[in-house]
Amino acid sequence: MLFTVAIPLYNKGGYIETTIRSVLNQTFSDFEVVVVDDGSKDGGAAAVMEINDPRVRLVVQQNAGVSVARNRAIAEARGRWVAFLDADDWWHPDYLAEQQRSIGQHPDALVVTTAFLTKRDSADWLPSPWPVPSGGLERRLLTELPHYFKKDVPFFTGSVAVQTALLRTLQPCFMPGETLGEDIELWFRLGELGAIVHLNFPLVAYRDAAGESLSSLHRFDDLPSYVSRLKTRALSGALDRQQADAVFSFVAFQQITLARKSLVNGRRLKALRWLSRAGARSLLEKRWWLTFSMAVLVPRTAILKWNALRWRRAVVRKNKGISQPGS
After folding, report:
1. CB 231: neighbour CB atoms within 10 A?
2. Domains plus CATH for the chain?
3. pLDDT at 63
4. pTM, whole model, 2 decimals?
C-alpha cells in the first residue's frame, strides 16, 4: 500500500463525511484512511462508521489533542507514505495521483507537497474540481524551508505526504499538547534532512472558518513554543551555517509579525518591544521599518483597514487562476 491518509477528528462531525468522500473519490486508489477520533462529542465517530468502505479505519482515543491524534495515526499507518488531511478540508480528485507522480519522478524524496487554495466557509462550501493542466505540472525542490515560510506558505498540513518509516524515527512528530506551529516545526525538521519536492499547483482546499487576519489570531506575550524550540535548535549547533541563518531569519520574521499583531490589538509599546527583539539584521529589512513606522505614526483604525486588505489580497493571490462555484 502506498498511502495512509491520516485524519485527526475532534468535533468536526458536520464536515468529516465531505472530507473522507474527497479521499474516496481519488483517481489513485492505493490507499487506506485512518481516522483518529480524539474524544469527539458531536457524533463525528458515528458519521465515520456509517461510511461503508473497507479502506476507512476508525481509531478511537480519549481526548489528548490534535498532535497526539496525528502521532497515533502515524503509528497505525500501513502505507509506505503518510498523507495528512484535517477533518474539515478537501482534496482535489487528482491529489494523490500527483503526489504519486512526484514520488516516481523523485525516488529519493522524503517529503512531497502541493500548493493549496483557501476557501471561506459557507453553507455551500463544497468545492468543485478545477481543471488540472494536461501537459504536466512542474515540480521544484525546496531547500532552507524557513525562507519560503517567510514569503508565503507554500503548503500546509493537508498538502503534505511523508515517508512513514522516516516519521516513525522522529516520533513524537507533532508536539503533544500544542496546536500552533506544531506542523511547521515538523516540516522544518524534515527539511533539514533533504530537499522537499513541491508541486506548485493547488490540489487541496483549506476551509477558512473565521479568517486568519492578524486581529483574529492569538495574542502572545512571548514567542510561540515551536519558534522558541527552532531558535534553541539553531543555537545548539545541530544545524549547518545556512540552515541556522535561515532559522534565525525566520525567528526575526515572527517577532516582527508579533509586533504587527500587537499593533492590531492596540498595544503599541508591546509592538516596539517585539521590534527591538528582532535583532540588528532586521534593520536592513523594509518590513521592519514599515512596522516601526506604523507603530509610531499610524492610527489604529488605519492599521485595521490595512490588515484586512492585506489578508484579502493574500487569499486572492493564493487562489489566483482557480475558478470554482461559490469561491
Report:
1. 18
2. 3-209 (3.90.550.10), 214-317 (no CATH)
3. 97
4. 0.88
